[in-house]
Amino acid sequence: MNRISSLKSGDASDESLGSLSISEYSPKVELESVYLYTLRLLVLEYINKPQFKQNDRNRQSPPTPPSSSSSSSSYSSLHSSRWSLSSSPLEDSGRSVSLGLGKSLFSNGQFSRSTNKTNYSEHIRIMTTLKQRLATYLYDVTIGRKKVTNATFRRCLLKFNNDTFMNSSLSTTLENMSNVEELIVYFTKSANNELSKVVVGDIQKELFKQVSKFVGLLQSLLPTNTPASFINKLTACADRMKPTKPSLKQKLFSNEKRRSATPVMYETSDSSSMSAVRKPVAALHVAPSFKLDDIPYSNYFSEIFNTDSIKVQQDVIKVMKESTNFTFSRELDEYSFQLQSDGGFLFLSDFRTEEEYNSWKILETKEIELLKNEFRTIGRAPSVPNSKNLIMPSDPRSTFVMLMNLIIKKECSTNMSSMEFTPGALYFMNTAARYWRVDFPSTLAALFYTASNISVLHSEEINLALTEGLFTFIKSTILHSDAIVDTRDWNEMDRRQWNANLFYTSEQCVNSLDNLLTGLYATTKPKFSPILVFYFEYVSADPSFQEHLPTIEKRIVKRLRRTIFKTSEKYYKSLIMELPKDETLEFKHIQNIAELIVRQLNTIQKRYTKPLLDKVNISFECATMLTTAMAIDGPNMIKKIERVLESKKKDVPPVDALELYSTFRELRDIYRQVQLKEKFPFNLERAFGKYLKRFAKNIALKISEVFRNSIKTETWEKINDDVRYSKSVLDIFKMANESLNIFKSFDWDINYRFAEAVVIVLKAFSDGIQLYCDMAVKLVQKSLRYSSASSYGFEDRGSSTNESEKRKSKWDFHEMKKAVRSSSSSAIPQPYKYKTETCVILNDVDTMIAHLEELENIVDFSELSKVITEHNAVKQKTTGETLKDGVYQLYTIRIKSASDIKGYGSNGLSNSSVSLINSREKSEIGETKVVPKSNNPEWDEEFELQLKRDEKCTLLLNVWHHPTGNFMSLTGADLCGRVSLVLDPKEFADDGFPNPKTLILDTRGELNMEIALETERMDPLFCIGRSYRTLSRARDKILELVVNKFTPFVSFVFSREVLKSICGGHGTRKPSDEEIYDAIVPLFDYLNANLNVLGQELSHGLLFMVMLKGWLFIIKAADIMLLPQVDIAKHRLANARKSLWSIGSSNSVSGYGRALTEYEIDCIFKWLDALCVDFFYNQGEGPPLKALQNTEYQTLLLIPSFYKKSALELKSEVKRLNPLYFQNIAELTSGSNVAVSRRFTTVERRKTIMGNSSKGKRKQLQEELQKADTDSLQQSLSTLNIILRVLITKGETDYVYRQLHERKQKMKRINVASSADKVSKGQKINYRS
Length: 1329
Description:
The chain is an alpha+beta fold. Residues 1077-1214 form the MHD2 domain.
């Protein structure tokens, strides 16, 4: 026989994909040929109806097939339990039944074909009773009268009741139903449909379980006199439906096992034994009439071939002589012969092994024998018009596909969403498949799939409902057995045809996806999941088809990506077309397009989280196209707008440009996510950098305006009792925070342009802080200079705080009375009257410092500084020029002290201060505080002067004496001396480190000072550092001004007059502890009163700062009392003049007076201890004890131990310490003593702007200082100076002078040697003497 040449197995290359086209498997037969072959089948079946069987001698029962071999025995046992599709035997009932797979329910076929009239009447009676009882039972179950414990069985019963007994269209069918097999078939259909709705493990096992229960129910409803044979057949029916597990050999290629899945769609034979042939019926014989009305399913035949009944009747007459058992048997013999000669429908090449091929041949041979036995006749065959095949087509596969094509079209003509077949359809499908030998499960599946694809499924896109119905039918009906589901085990022809159909379905899926992708940018986004679920479940999951998937899906991915690209391109063009084409194009138009794109991409990303087919990321593909297109076209559109505005002499508003930048930045971020290795085509920072800089300048102007308005409108009132600073602080830092947050919101790449813009803003802020602090300090100076000191408390400025609330915040020295007596003979001055604005200003400055640190949380200034530094380095390397940062240079002028200045007082001392004047501008830079009664005053105050870069300035420094009382001159102050200093930036390194300067006054004495130079840098850290240092200096200055107002009384208490009152004029009287503490009580009360006043308005931290500064002044006052200063010996003051204290005293020191006795020394230290522990620390309510016991206090504690030693012992100690001191100096100068050098450098660096540039930097320097806290140089110097000062009190002034002179000479030699050594090594000289 002819056949379609099979596709050769092989690779899944692009060439092989072409062979997967179903066009190769389209029917190659004429419709007329299919018509005739099908008609002959119809007639053949008709003449073999049981009533036409003659019980004569010429029609004998043929013998059973030979069964000598073991395989034959196995075949017979397997065939007896094969699967079949059961359909109602009612001719042309017109009802649709879903295709449920069941076993041949009765081994002997339909009951009416094998019984006599008596048995048949009894059978009808039993069936009538059974149906009535079943209907009653189902009704009781429905209304809940009957309880069914098994929920699944109850659902199946209700479904069965609804589909049959409650279905009016089946009333006639039920009434005429005479076979219990049909009843079970209907239940099987309903149960199968119901089970498909619930989740079960093995649906076939569960279906068998439910059918078995139903059979049991039927048995329980049978009448009592039901014959045992009827009951046994019901039991046998249930047993036959039980799925069997095939052996390994059967699973591989057992025809019986494959046959078990073959849908025998219409049972026509009496098969009491599957090896038996048709048996004659011992009944009245009726000859076939060949009338169309008598032939089953003739009407259905007319419908599928669209032929009128008259022509069909005529054609029946024509083929009646051809459609005979003799003809069919002859064709079966011919096919059997071809099969044995390897000329069957399948060849050896269609199987993986020869064994599989032989197994198929044996199976097919046995099936042929069964058919031959069923249609065998005795006698001479009648003459046939020709010898060609009349029953079995020469191309059965194409013929069957064509027939199925017609059937499927008819069945789905009214419903294209599901596949349900009428009995007529099932009849032709079953009969044709069996007689034409295409009922092998894999063959039937492939052919049925092909017929569906070229008929109702022949379209560009997938019909999901109908295609899912197709697969459900094939897998649950044709391929019902697990052993034949794996398509890899199929023969090559079936497998190739199946894969061709799958390829066609996959193309339909892709077409549907492709079409849906065109709606990606629609308001309602397309839904891909139904198609993808179907594709993964039915197409890509197929075992045989998977070998082609890599090549197929590669093409699919390429196609889908191309569609996404074109869809995105079309969407992008639609957006561009909406842009104005004339000069009205603005940034906002581009902004709108960019925002629409970002919005669409975000929506697509959220909507489609998983890639199509696990390979095509929709959001990535869309983003790649749209972001790239916008990046390419964006610069051109922006330049066009800029040219138009330039021609009109207009500027683009920076805000509009930066908003557009932010949107483009979003596009760039998306682009970078999808194009990891590609660079964004549009340099945003270069295009928008000029707008950022312009925006920064606008912000800087607004910041300056805020500072000016704040200063101008400031009333220096606290916001409320909880918020003790003024509103200006909020306004200033609100502006600063908002400005930096705006820059942060741009999400600008950290580059030079961004850093430059931030610096512009921070510089304006730093300048504003400088202006604010200068004004604040001047206001405090003015307030403290002219306010009265005779009243208590603060001025009433409308505060609503009552006295009880104020007392809560006061400093209260409540434990002091336990340590000292409350009585005092000394008059205690009233506390100073600080104005409210003074404390508010101090709170403002302190709060600004805290807020300044918070700015670092908004922007990483260190990162910006690094960017600027790297940019400048690259630029300098490129241009070869030294880059100049800022336009200004900052000088920090520290006035430390003076020595041996001219004395204007009657005691030879002066109340001195220093004023600094810029000679060029003839303006005063500042003036120090007044240090009373000293020819060696110490001011230790800093001033800042800003000059243009490389500008020189002559600085005039005047030392003034301020007379008091009757000594006040007409001019108000006397000039003690003056000196000038030229500030030349070339003479100072601009590292911020101090450069010591000693200037000789024009009258007498020296002025000691330090000059530090720092060049303004366009660096955010510099701006922040300058702001922080400015605020810190302002706070320290104001604190000192505040403390200075109550220090005069401290100086009065720590005086020789008070010592004289308790120790006698010569200090020889030993006072009691009570007398010592009584003398200090006035100071306790005075300090307590002043701190209470300040505590009402200052914050807790500021109050502690005031206390620490007051304590530091007390330590200095005690130090002045305890020992003469070492500078006295340095200038031989002892030989120059006599102090008032030295009158009549042999051991008096000029400028100091009489040396104190041990009683006086002890008295002073007891005062210090009481103040430190009892007053300031105050049981932990004051500053920490560690802060109070500072270095200065620890140095004073050395005095008692050396004061008791003789001059000889002290000189010996000096001799021991001097080498150590000079060794430390030499190591520090050379840098070999790392610890001392580090501490020295750290102390200097902490004062620089860059040392204050960040919290991290300040913390780092503080930690370095703590690590290098053991300063041997400072310790040795402090110890030496204490000893030398003690020696002065013992009359060794000349010795001390020689030591100081020797120290000075030694220092010069060390510095010269160190400098020479460094120069010889090519090193930079860092140490400054």
